[in-house]
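Aim 2 progress update. The chain analyzed this quarter is reproduced below.
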Amino acid sequence: KDLEIRGAGEILGTRQSGKASRFVGGRLYAKILRQEIERIRALEVVPVPGCDLDAFFGTDLGTIEETIVGTGTDPFDVELGRAKDGAAVAALAPLAKGDKRKKALLKRTLLERHAARLGFDRIFSSPSLDDDHQNDDGPAENLDDVRLSAPTLRPETWNLLRREVPGQLAASLRFDEPRNDVVVVRLCSLDLRKRVDFLLEIFLHMTNFLDRIQHIHQDQDEDDDDPKEHDVITEDVVGDDDDDDDDVLLDVDDDFEG
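Predicted structure tokens:
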């Protein structure tokens, strides 16, 4: 029944479909919407100043490129060092076109900025949670896990973030609550380039979600600061339940599509 009312997805977000208020009435829809907004407001992601990637790259640093670390004098390296967030780093991508060293450095920096925004202060490999991959007939394949240390990450926050990752990628993610680590199972079975790309894709889904939530917060704050707008929304949404066609919030897709 819920699927018929709300469609497949969340009440907020790009995966929502359906016209909830037409089925449940203005008052109930407004209540559901308020509850969902409060749930998302409880999303507490505490950024960290930076993320230590040295253990993640380790001795394989040169396998991405001979000299991935910036020289500090190259104009590209200088601009990259000044980039404060993932968006600023991504904006420099055209300058790295055709240069393998710059591309590698760009990816490393992008990985670090996104990880720090999500509250991960260290990325490193560790023995797999599953020890069954040991092979008695020969050397064991490297199927170690990769761990993302997140000292302030709460389980409920992690659950919200993980839901934004597509199923095939999310299947590899675990949350080790005692250690407050996110575990990417057997990621070391991939070469270093693919490990970087895998983590970047996961981080991009999560940071895009944070961007959408930030926009929702800004819209809500603007509505709260505008008495006229607040009066109109209140009158339309919590008015007569039988007059659903006049409600302001008719289609979740229209109002919240990111």
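The first strand starts at residue 122 and ends at 126. The chain is about 50% helix and 5% strand. These observations will guide the mutagenesis experiments scheduled for the next reporting period.
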